[in-house]
Design brief:
Keywords: Membrane, Transmembrane, Transmembrane helix
Number of domains: 2
Number of strands: 10
Number of helices: 27
Strand content: 5-15%
Shape: elongated
Transmembrane segments: 81-101, 108-129, 149-167, 174-200, 267-289, 335-357, 369-386, 406-427, 434-452
Protein name: STAS domain-containing protein
Radius of gyration: 32 Å
Domain SLC26A/SulP transporter: 79-449
Subcellular location: Membrane
Helix content: 55-70%
Length: 623
C-alpha cells in the first residue's frame, strides 16, 4: 500500500510541477465544479485563443507596410530615394560578386537582390535591413551545391525559406541563442578567411580549378604552388582595385565635417559608391582595351550574363542531369544538413542585424523570420539564391538616412534596371575586380581581437575554447562542421552547471537550532541529482545527527527526477539520524512536493489514507 501511495504522490508531484491539477491527489480532495462553470471556463479559453490567433494573423501585423505607409510623406520619400539609390549602387556589384562565390552565373545574385529587396518592403519591420545575397550565404551555398546544377541552389533557397517560415510560425527564433557570441565571431572570421583564400586565384588570374571542400589551408597552398602561373594583367588590375577600394573607404577623413560639411558629404557619397565606381571604371577600361589592344584584353572577364527576370516557376519539379531525372525529394536528400544549417545561419545573421539597427533594440523576431522565409520562398520561384540580411549594406542604409523599408523598392528597381539594360555590359567586368570587391567587403568581418578579450574575466576559458574549436574546424573541415562543433563546445559550460552543480555549505550554530546549511546553485534537474545526493549524504554521514537544511532559494527549475530524488534523499538523511528540512521553497513547489511546514522548515510527510490504519511498526517508525 505504501508503494502504491508513493507512486500516486510522485504522479501528483509531476502533474503539479507541469501546472496540471494543483492540489489534486491523495492529500487533497476538491468537489467537482458544476458543468456550467466548466463550460464557461472552456468558452473563455477558446475566446482568448481565437483573439490571440486573430491578432497574430492580422494583416497589419504580418504586412507592416500597412502601418507605416499611412504616415508616409514627401520628406520620407526623398530620404528613402537617396538611401535606396545609394544602397543599389552598393548591392549590384556585391550581388554579382557573391554569385561567383557560390559558383553561379552573375545573374543569380541579381535575382536574389531584386526579390529580397522587393519582398522585404512589404513584410520587413526594420527600415535599415537589406535582404539579399551575402558572403556568408554564398559560402554556405557553395558548401552544399558545389559541382551541382544551379537547380540545387534554387531548391536550397526554397527549402530554407520553408524552414524559416516554420520557425516563425512556431516561434523558434530562440534557437539562435544556442550560438554564443564567441562561436559567431569565430564562424564569421573563418568565413572571411575562406572567402579571401578562394578569391586569391581570381585576383592573380590563376586558371580556375573545380570547386572542392578541401579546406582553407589546401586552397591557399594550391595558390602558392601555382604562383608562377599568375597573369600579370589580372594581378595588376586586382591589386590596383584593392588599393583604390581601401583609399575610397577612407576618403571622407580627408575633409572633416567640421571644416567643410558639404565637401565632406560629397566625399562620403563617393565612398559609399566605391564598389560601383571601381566596377564601372574597370568595365570601361576592359571595353576600351577590347577595341584597341592588339592582343585583346589582358585580363579575364566575367562573360555573358542572362538579361531580364526569369518567369515564375515552382522549384519543386525534378531536373534532368545528363540522361538521369532527379526528383525534388532526391535533391533535398542530397542537400542533407544544409536544409537546416543554411536557414539557421540566415536567421542568426538577420536577427542580429535587426537587433543592431532596431529602435531601442526591440525586434519582432517572429515577423522577421516570416519576412526572411518569404524572401527565400518567393525568390526561389524566380531562380534566386539563398538570402539573408547583410550588415554592410544595412549600415549603408542607416548612414544614408533611410526612413522606411520602402527604400528597398528603389534598390530593387535599380537592380531590375541593371538586369534589363546593363547585362550586355556586365560581360566586360573583370574577374579580378570582383575578387577585389569581395576581399575588401569581407575583410571587415575578421574579428581576431576578440581572442585577447576572451580569457579575461568575466569571460572564461570555455569561451576561448569554443572560439578556437569553431575557428579551426571551419578552416580545416568546412563552415558547417565548424559551426556545429563550436555550438557543441559552447554548450559544455551551461551543461556543466546542471550536471555538476555547485553548493555553498556551512554550519550554522543556534539558537534555536544548529544545522548544516546547503544551498545548491542554480537548480536541480536530473543530470545534477547524483552530484547533490553525494554532497548531502557526505555531510549527513560525517555530521550526524546534525540536521541538514537544504536551501532551495536559488532553484530555478525542478523536474520529475529531482522531485523523486528529494523525497528519497530525505529518507536517506533520516536513516543517518538527522532530519532534512527544505527552506525557501516556492509556494507552487510546496504544493507540488506535498510538503508539511514545521518550525525549522518544510519536510516530506509520510503518505497515509483514511482507509488504512498504520501498523504498530509504522507507529514506532513515525515516532
Amino acid at each position: 500500500m505504501q508503494t502504491v501511495l508513493g507512486v500516486m504522490v510522485e504522479e501528483e508531484e509531476l502533474r503539479a510541477l507541469q501546472g496540471e491539477g494543483h492540489g489534486v491527489g491523495p492529500y487533497h480532495h476538491e468537489e467537482p465544479k458544476d458543468s456550467g462553470s466548466l463550460s464557461s471556463l472552456s468558452s473563455d479559453a477558446t475566446k482568448r485563443w481565437w483573439e490571440r490567433l486573430r491578432s497574430e494573423c492580422s494583416p497589419s501585423r504580418r504586412l507592416p507596410i500597412l502601418t507605416w505607409i499611412r504616415r508616409y510623406d514627401g520628406e520620407d520619400a526623398l530620404s528613402d530615394l537617396i538611401a535606396g539609390v545609394t544602397l543599389g549602387l552598393t548591392m549590384i556589384p556585391q550581388s554579382i560578386a557573391y554569385a561567383t562565390i557560390a559558383g553561379l552565373p552573375s545573374q543569380y545574385g541579381l535575382y536574389a537582390a531584386f526579390m529580397g529587396s522587393l519582398v522585404y518592403v512589404f513584410c520587413g519591420t526594420v527600415r535599415e535591413v537589406s535582404i539579399g545575397p551575402t558572403s556568408l550565404m554564398s559560402l554556405m551555398t557553395l558548401e552544399y551545391t558545389a559541382g551541382r546544377p544551379p537547380e540545387y541552389v534554387i531548391v536550397l533557397a526554397f527549402a530554407s525559406g520553408l524552414v524559416e517560415l516554420a520557425m516563425g510560425a512556431f516561434r523558434l527564433g530562440f534557437l539562435v541563442c544556442f550560438i554564443s557570441v564567441p562561436v559567431t565571431s569565430a564562424f564569421t572570421s573563418a568565413t572571411a578567411l575562406i572567402i579571401i583564400g578562394a578569391q586569391l586565384g581570381n585576383l592573380l588570374g590563376l586558371p580556375r580549378l573545380p570547386a572542392s571542400d578541401s579546406g582553407f589551408f589546401s586552397t591557399v597552398s594550391g595558390v602558392v604552388r601555382r604562383l608562377q602561373e599568375a597573369n600579370v594583367g589580372d594581378t595588376t588590375l586586382g591589386a590596383s582595385c584593392l588599393v583604390l577600394l581601401v583609399a575610397l573607404q577612407f576618403l571622407p577623413r580627408l575633409v572633416p565635417a567640421s571644416h567643410h560639411r558639404r565637401l565632406h558629404r560629397l566625399l562620403w557619397y563617393i565612398s559609399l559608391a566605391r564598389n560601383a565606381i571601381v566596377v564601372l571604371v574597370s568595365a570601361l577600361l576592359a571595353h576600351h582595351l577590347s577595341q584597341t589592344w592588339p592582343n585583346g584584353v589582358p585580363f579575364r572577364l566575367s562573360g555573358n550574363v542572362e538579361p531580364g527576370i526569369p518567369a515564375f516557376e515552382w522549384p519543386v519539379r525534378g531536373i534532368t542531369v545528363g540522361n538521369t531525372t532527379v526528383s525534388f525529394l532526391e535533391i533535398t536528400s542530397e542537400l542533407g544538413s544544409g536544409l537546416l544549417l543554411v536557414p539557421l545561419v540566415a536567421v542568426l545573421a538577420n536577427v542580429a542585424i535587426a537587433k543592431a539597427f532596431a529602435t531601442d533594440g526591440v525586434v519582432d523576431a517572429t515577423q522577421e523570420l516570416i519576412a526572411l522565409g518569404l524572401c527565400n520562398v518567393v525568390g526561389s520561384c524566380f531562380r534566386a539564391m539563398p538570402t539573408t540580411g547583410a550588415f554592410t549594406r544595412s549600415a549603408v542604409s542607416h548612414a544614408s538616412g533611410v526612413r522606411t523599408p520602402l527604400s528597398g523598392l528603389y534598390s530593387a528597381l535599380l537592380t531590375l534596371l541593371a538586369l534589363g539594360v546593363l547585362t550586355p555590359h556586365f560581360y566586360y567586368i573583370p574577374r579580378a575586380t570582383l575578387a577585389a570587391v569581395l576581399i575588401a567587403a569581407v575583410a571587415s568581418m575578421l574579428d581576431l581581437a576578440i581572442v585577447r578579450r576572451l580569457p579575461r574575466p568575466p569571460a572564461s576559458l570555455s569561451d576561448l575554447l569554443s572560439w578556437t574549436v569553431c575557428f579551426a574546424v571551419c578552416l580545416l573541415r568546412g563552415v558547417e562542421v565548424g559551426l556545429l562543433c563550436g555550438m557543441g563546445v559552447s554548450l559544455f559550460e551551461p551543461l556543466r552547471h546542471w550536471v555538476w552543480p555547485r553548493a555553498e555549505r556551512s554550519t550554522v550554530r543556534g539558537p534555536p537550532l544548529t544545522y548544516r546549511h546547503i544551498r545548491p546553485n542554480p537548480g536541480l534537474l536530473y543530470p545534477g541529482v547524483d552530484r547533490l545526493r553525494t554532497l548531502v549524504l557526505a555531510d549527513a554521514r560525517r555530521l550526524a545527527p546534525l540536521p541538514i537544511v537544504l536551501d532551495c532559494g536559488q532553484f530555478v527549475a525542478l523536474d520529475y527526477s529531482a522531485v523523486r530524488a528529494l523525497r528519497e534523499l530525505s529518507e536517506e538523511v533520516t536513516r543517518f539520524g538527522g532530519p532534512m528540512f527544505l527552506r525557501n521553497v516556492q509556494p507552487a513547489w510546496q504544493k507540488a512536493l506535498q510538503l508539511r511546514e514545521t518550525e525549522h522548515g518544510f519536510v516530506f510527510p509520510r503518505p497515509t489514507t483514511n482507509e488504512t490504519k498504520p501498523t504498530g511498526r509504522d507507529r514506532k517508525d513515525s515516532v
